[in-house]
Design brief:
Length: about 230
């Protein structure tokens, strides 16, 4: 596919993916994800997910804007700013379609509190983007790109009997999103050769942490997570 890039055994992206292979397999096996393709996912859980994902994307877009400010080159600045705007566009188009299906208004969405996992994940993203190096910020935001593309490719091959779930799968498994991910992976490869051991470890740690949050995000939706107190 268009998003595939050439890597070597010593490449940064190969190193990063190797570190989360088990996490990714757990994501594919999660009942929320398998329920998208076999149609068994309760619509209430999907409704919870799309609302929380819309709230997530507004904060993720801010993290991408910080990545733009810290980017090493002008084209990288432009790319992340475009992706930040694109995250907001996805929230408006894809999610608003789902909101209409569920009879939800914009006011209801805005009044919904962040679920505990969502708040923890986005707070981690923003703290890392603000306080870390560019490589650390990139490591933190990368799983949302990469894991969604990999999941989308897998699920689009499986299909879904549910029209709402099929619409979501088509968005993340399509060629347009693949091209976006390819650009970010290429940037990671480019900076990888310049990273010292300490910064490479720090970037990897953030990448692993937010990959775990991706699993937790789907798990929170399946459980309709709320604050216990």
């Amino acid at each position: 596919m268009a998003a595939e890039i050439a890597t070597t055994g010593d490449s940064l992206t190969t190193h990063l993916w190797t570190r989360i292979d088990g996490i990714y397999r757990a994501i594919l096996d999660h009942p929320f994800v398998t329920g998208l393709t076999d149609g068994t996912l309760p619509e209430e859980a999907f409704r919870f997910y799309v609302v929380q994902d819309a709230l997530y994307l507004t904060r993720y877009a801010r993290a991408l804007s910080i990545c733009a400010a810290k980017s090493p080159g002008e084209r990288d600045v432009e790319m992340f700013n475009q992706h930040a705007a694109g995250a907001m566009a996805v929230e408006r188009s894809l999610h608003e379609g789902f909101f209409a299906d569920f009879g939800l208004s914009a006011e209801e969405i805005a009044a919904t509190p962040l679920a505990p996992t969502n708040l923890a994940y986005t707070s981690y993203l923003l703290a890392t983007a603000y306080g870390g190096s560019f490589a650390e910020a990139l490591g933190a935001v990368l799983p949302c790109y990469w894991i969604y593309w990999e999941v989308g490719k897998t699920l689009i091959a499986r299909g879904s009997p549910h029209p709402l779930y099929r619409r979501w799968i088509d968005t993340y498994g399509g060629e347009e999103f693949a091209g976006i991910v390819a650009d970010v992976l290429a940037l990671a490869e480019r900076i990888g050769a310049e990273l010292g051991p300490a910064e490479r470890r720090a970037m990897t740690d953030h990448f692993v942490a937010t990959s775990r949050y991706e699993w937790l995000f789907w798990d929170a939706a399946l459980k309709l997570e709320s604050w216990p107190v």
